[in-house]
Amino acid sequence: MTLQDISNLDDIKLLVNTFYDKVQKDDLIGPIFNERILGRWPEHLEKMYRFWQTILLEVHTYSGTPFPPHKHLPTNQSHFDRWMEIFTSTVDGLFVGKLAEEAKVRAANMAYMFNYKIEYFRNLENH
């Protein structure tokens, strides 16, 4: 199978569905996601389709602020490392090209920012 670049909403859905299927089964980060999302996986996946479609395809279907729902997650650097490991392997297993690389860069930037902000707010609350 020759891998292609991410080019449309179906590709975004394949990426998101494959990624979150792996996340839900992961021993480290799966419980965090499954506990908070519970029976709302379809709703979460729809939101993620819109988010990545907006970022990668410049089809502006997502509006909102992604950080607040993550502010109080019981996470540390190891959780974000695993998230990136799963995301990167998912992208690399499905796609190759400019937008595939852009997806990994954007995900890495988000993981860094989310972890930094979570730590910042956690430290503020503990002082």
From TrEMBL:
Key words, A-Z: Heme, Iron, Metal-binding, Transport
Gene3D superfamilies per UniProt: Globins
Listed InterPro entries: Globin-like_sf, Globin/Proto, Hemoglobin_trunc
Residue intervals passing through the bilayer: none
A Pfam family reported for this protein in Swiss-Prot or TrEMBL: Bac_globin
Domain of life: Bacteria
Name of the protein this chain belongs to: Group III truncated hemoglobin
